[in-house]
Amino acid sequence: MKRKVAVLPGDGIGKEVMEGTMKVLSAVADRFGHTFEFHKGRIGGDAIDQDGMPLPDETLRICKESDAALLGAVGGPKWESLPGHLRPERGLLGIRKELGLFANLRPVTAFDSLLHASPLKPDRIKGVDMLIVRELTGGLYFGTPSERRNGGDEVVDTLHYTRSEIERIVEQGFEAASKRRQKLTSVDKANVLESSRMWREVVEEKAKAYPDVEVEHMLVDAAAMKMVQNPSHFDVIVTENLFGDILSDEASMITGSLGMLPSASLRSDGFGMYEPVHGSAPDIAGKNLANPLAMILSGAMMLKYSFEMHDEAEAIEKAVKEVLDAGYYTSDLANGSTKALGTDAMIKKVIYQ
Amino acid sequence: MKRKVAVLPGDGIGKEVMEGTMKVLSAVADRFGHTFEFHKGRIGGDAIDQDGMPLPDETLRICKESDAALLGAVGGPKWESLPGHLRPERGLLGIRKELGLFANLRPVTAFDSLLHASPLKPDRIKGVDMLIVRELTGGLYFGTPSERRNGGDEVVDTLHYTRSEIERIVEQGFEAASKRRQKLTSVDKANVLESSRMWREVVEEKAKAYPDVEVEHMLVDAAAMKMVQNPSHFDVIVTENLFGDILSDEASMITGSLGMLPSASLRSDGFGMYEPVHGSAPDIAGKNLANPLAMILSGAMMLKYSFEMHDEAEAIEKAVKEVLDAGYYTSDLANGSTKALGTDAMIKKVIYQ
Ligand SMILES: CC(C)[C@H](C(=O)O)[C@@H](O)C(=O)O
Ligand SMILES: CC(C)[C@H](C(=O)O)[C@@H](O)C(=O)O
Predict the structure, then answer these.
(1) Which class is domain B1-104+261-353?
(2) Interior CA angle at B88 toward B262 and B94, to 5°?
């Protein structure tokens, strides 16, 4: 098969991990007889520097003409003092919104060979395999008004959802749960927020169509605690934008490093943008120190979710697991005990191990 | 000295842990020659059942005539299907707002003798001693509008702050940090929220008056991760209402149990309400299983913050530490390995050990 892939490396380590991922995908294409055509676009600080804005039209055009998109990471100190609408993050938030990528899927898996790298005790995380389904284009991230008032004496942000926005993400949660271990935890703050009470109602309604899925409601504070106390409790979590942001970063510690977490941002027609959960890590950028596995695993998610290439995706996931099982780690995972591989060496291991 | 204390046991285990705490405080009063006059009031489900509302005027009156208040916990399945304004939590939110208790202090300390009980590895939590300063009467909790729109097709909640609300809580953060290890982490989501950008500005302004305090800004998602990865990083955290709610529940896992965390809710004149961070735990209520230490330690905070009784507070804290060091635990901390004490036995240990 032939597929067009928009490639948006962005800033910092985004560039390095993207290079490696394109190599891994090309190796998979060779092996399985596919062609992936990569079309590069600029986003974030990279685009600010070259185009004067974080999300140029050209980048959106490339994405719209592609079958899926890969994104590295955006941001860095260089652009931090720019006014809000010109910051690198606006590029990321903008592309999610413009492309309608409302469903952010963040799988969190404890690799047996990485139990040492987690701050959590091995018995708590062994076997953890959860999927966080985060709403990505609504809530406090996009609600208006979001402004100063009374000459700067007051400020408001707005948590806004339409019922159909809640419905479609809750459906994604149920769909995912029904294909996994049939357990859905819906996270909200229904004892305080009206939006959470509506969220809970929608979950209850949708539950009727999935009688085999066990549904549970959990307050976000309790969920933040449970995530540390007993992460194996979770199969699929579905939650709104900001809660999903916080919980998925917290959950990353189960794997020992943010450098291990891939994500998919989907809409209903199969198009998706795939990116690591980590950021651009300016402190280690350009030093061949970045862990490329989150980006590589995001590539695997692209094969699975946008291209229906399940064997191909599994080949990548298997390669990653084998490299880790063989004791090869990047420095974020090495924990002092082993000699760490650089980014390039890790990529080679995944391709040729 | 003679002090009037409003005592609001509330629901579930709130009643049991409050009984014990009054005994501990009376023992302290005897030993140090004070008199504590306890005046009981109703709140939460207890008040719904007897007065038809979660926060009767009578309870507010008792608080206003007292020098400080102790609160147990509110809520339970019995009242969960009531309409929003009649739920037990409204009593809690109402009393915070009515009494103007804007500063919620949640200390998180790793007890050496409890390292086994935490899901985190001992080397990560040993020596952790942080204070979370949470804004308690603003933000998404109280902002309006908070409502359905378009016949239920849309919903909004409002994150609202005035500049002076931000200023006074940020000052509390700086004050606390300047009396501790001189490090303040301000947690926000400034890459998305306008309210967080204003929050950051206020922190920068106030920082000028505290040149000895090292200030750091951290995004809430990064903070949720750091809390697990390296909690010793933190001295004082200052943050808005909802972020503080989430982070403090997450942080509770450092101590091994929510049953260990006390809190103080203060205003500027010394009056405060003191309550455990845990809830009413209906599943174990009335079974003599609850850990009373969070409530007892909240009593110690009352002595320190509202009554300036520092030796007295330390006597309680020391007693708690000694009981734990001697290997006595309630079941939430026992981890299967030791025989657990019941609530009553634990209270006796703290008083007579
Ligand atoms: C960079 C930031 C705006 C973004 C978010 O909050 O969504 C990031 O934290 C993420 O989770 O992808
Ligand atoms: C019961 C609930 C409204 C409350 C809150 O969110 O403030 C609780 O979680 C707390 O932290 O005291």
Answers:
(1) alpha beta
(2) 75
